[in-house]
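Dear support,

I submitted the protein below through the web form. The confirmation email said the job was done, but the results page showed an empty box. After a refresh the structure appeared. I'm attaching both so you can tell me whether what I see now is the final result or a partial one.
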Amino acid sequence: MKQMIKGLRSLSTLLTPKVNSGEWIRESIQGIRGLLPAAGGQCIACLEPDAHFGLCAPCREDLPVNHWHCRCCALPLAFAGDETLCGQCLQAPPPFSRVIAPWRYRFPVDGMIQRYKYNGQRAFARPLINDFADHLIAVLEADPELRPDLLVASPMHPARRRRRGFNQAADIAEQISKRSAIPWTTDLVTRSRQTRPQRGLNREQRLANLRGIYQVTAIPPARVAIVDDVVTTGATARRLAEVLQIAGATDVQVWALARTPG
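What the results page shows now:
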């Protein structure tokens, strides 16, 4: 299997300025093409020139697919099976009906999402979002009853959005909506206050940190899918699903790029 010898370094760091150099111009054009939202261009992982939506075939095969997982929360499991419930879902069934998360949150997916989420490097998210949309369309074609009426981007407090410059959940929801023709919104659920960052907190701390911060602004449709980048402990998904069900939703799913291991 081909190794990702270049890692996940930013493409911009690989362009060495060469004044009045035709070679520099050609390299710059190649780098720009790798950032374009179309098939082709350079692979963001190994810089091979033959890429599809940012990844070449071998690097795409290296993505950690979440093959074995809890059938409800998508927690990665160490044994085969997709009809098994994890211990947490058995002890405290979540308010959502299922989580669809095609990858495990580990190398290289974790680095790709972090570069996108915290550094605004959207080129690293493009292949994940494109393949995620492909996966969801296949799931819905196989089981049309899973199709939600509305996609709800996981809300971000306005102050945090201003600092980051974008809401990654809204980006993902918008792209899925374009591919699936399912409407999406950022307005149905709002976040009323800022909280301490969820990173580094355990599940109980995350649940306490999120208590009372979400408000639903209108009656939701019956079937809703919450869209986010990563499901970690499921605390955010639980709180969002709870308030949506209280407001009238009868089935809440969670769609995310990746699920963290237990």
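Response: this is the final, complete result; the empty box was a page-load delay. The longest strand covers residues 223-231.
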